[in-house]
Amino acid sequence: MPRSRITLVVAVVVAVSIVGGYFVHATFFQDARAPISKLVLSPGADATELGLNWFTNANLPEQVQIVPIETLPVETATSQTASSRAEVAGEPSTPTSGAIPADYAFPESAAATFAAAMTPLEGELAQAGLWDSAFSAKATVTGLVPGTSYAYRVGAAESGWSPVYRYTVPDETEGFSFLFYGDAQLGSRSIPEFLRDVGLERDTEGWQASLATSLETYPDASFMLSLGDQINGESVTTQPDDVALAAQYEAYFEPEALREHPLAVVPGNHDIRVEGHDAHWHMPNVSEDRHYWFTRGGMLFIGLDSNIDTGGTVSEEQAAAQIAELTEYLREVVDAQGKDADWIVVAMHQSPFGQGLHYGDGDVTALRENFAAELSAAGVDLVLGGHDHIYTRTHLMEGNVPVVPEEPAAPRDTLVPESGHTLYVTANSASGSKFNRFRDSTGIDNRDHVDYDLMHPSTAVWQQDYTADFGAIEVTETALTVTVLNTVDASLVDEVTLLRSPVDA
Questions:
Q1: What is the pLDDT of residues 379-430, one digit of tens each?
Q2: Which residues on neighbouring strands pair with residue 123, listed in sequence order?
Q3: Helix (H) or strand (E) segment spanning residue 180
Q4: d(CA 50, CA 140)
């Protein structure tokens, strides 16, 4: 039974934290009785659309209201808010991040309204009240104009509104960029201070730092991508698993950036073996099997649920069924949407060609031996993955056969793929919550004394320095550049550019 809507007026705790000059969380819904929580943006089917997902206690229809920021009336500024604004052409502008100040009155009569689909939260955590909400709300905004900044809020007059946030639609006329992050897996850091759950605190700090540093470096990124295992799921502390899971999701949604920059996610094994994944996300064109696609500029992006099994053993029947499903979906989407695409990029959690401990797993082996050829045949240019917690970049792959260049691979490589050539990039952890060692081709884990002759034949570049990373991809009609940077010092981990050959261009 849904809990009754709470109408008490409560205090909201406001916390401000600055990492790398970017506000990582300015107004977060910390009170358990707040009507709205876990608000997150997601990419729409194209740049003119935007997805939103939030949790609410309201047992009534809620909606999104959105309006161009330039239409917001400004009340007489107080001394506090005036100091935070820049004067442009004699008119005050809004701050660069965070909730829009209270002296910006939301013009409800001028706003476009989009209804949310309300779904009751189910499962043991909902029954125990650990989600602090009764419903998941999903809405899609359409008709957005590239280059325009909008103010939006979610909720309803009867149940209350969220703070007013901003979103700027990217102008992708001459190219665009997007960011990607490997396994944040919040809550997986096992450390001695169990009772204080310091591990989750440190994981959260690392996740916030990667978001902050990446958005400071690439402030105009069109969207962000999380490559699975957003949370750990189980507890590594003395907390019960259900309490730990709820806390991990709360921590994942803390960064304010998630209210201003769309985040696409693919499910990881840790995400789907516990409850709650589907309720937290609203991906575009999503299938009942959690696969989805969208377009940006000249790029077709496909997100896949590559989880063949959430346990340890994978039967041949399980693997064959999942590979058949992935293949059918990939072919259908590429046939329908990929003919005019300059680039096709696929994201899936399990990377077929990592240099870590999962290389020999049954599910990963099945993807490598039976799905890699399908990715090449479909014309996929780049596959992004996680799961291995060690950075790895392959040579260009023709199916599962590496195309080894004459010169040794190195950061800042430029590659000109031919038809059927696919590049694979496996991201390291974006939070620093867990790292895996280099596992050589004999199956031995190495930390300090690595024999580079024992890399997998597919591996071109790998790195493991046991600190968090993030990646950025810059896309134009003729080039796609992958840059991976260290979160701690922004040093270069790797960079590679794919160029269209004259025949393909």
A1: 999 999 999 989 999 999 999 999 999 899 999 999 999 999 999 999 999 9
A2: none
A3: strand 176-181
A4: 6
Q: How many helices and strands, by DSSP H and E, does the chain display?
A: 9, 31
Whole-prediction pTM value? 0.86
| Closest to 276 (Cα-Cα) out of 247, 237, 236 | 247
Q: Residue 96 contacts by C-beta under 8 Å, 6 or more apart in sequence?
A: none
> Is 195 in contact with 178 (CB distance < 8 Å)?
no
DSSP state of 466: S
Joined together, the tokens standing for residue 196 give 């204080």
Cβ atoms of residues 40 and 53 within 8 Å: yes
DSSP 154: E
Are the C-beta atoms of 435 and 400 separated by less than 8 Å? no
Q: Would you call 504 exposed, middle or buried from its count of C-beta atoms within 10 A (0-12, 13-18, 19+)?
A: middle
Q: Are strands 492-499 and 22-25 parallel, antiparallel or unpaired?
A: unpaired
- As a whole number of angstroms, the distance between CA 315 and CA 390 comes to 26
Please write the tens of the pLDDT for every residue from 260-290.
Answer: 999 999 999 888 888 889 999 999 999 999 9
Name the percent of the chain in helix, strand, coil, to the closest 5. 20, 30, 50
Residue 140 is classified by DSSP as: E
d(CA 463, CA 335): 36
User: Do residues 79 and 85 make contact, with C-beta atoms less than 8 angstroms apart?
Assistant: no
Residues in the chain, how many?
505
- The whole-angstrom separation of Cα 360 and Cα 476 is 36
The DSSP secondary-structure symbol of 503 reads T
Q: Is 221 helix (H, G, I), strand (E, B) or coil?
A: coil
The answer to whether 63 touches 161, Cβ cutoff 8 Å, is: no
Pairing of strands 22-25, 17-19: antiparallel
**How far apart (Å, rounded) are the C-alpha atoms in residues 284 and 307?**
19
CA distance 187 to 196: 12
Q: How many CB atoms lie within 10 A of CB 450?
A: 15
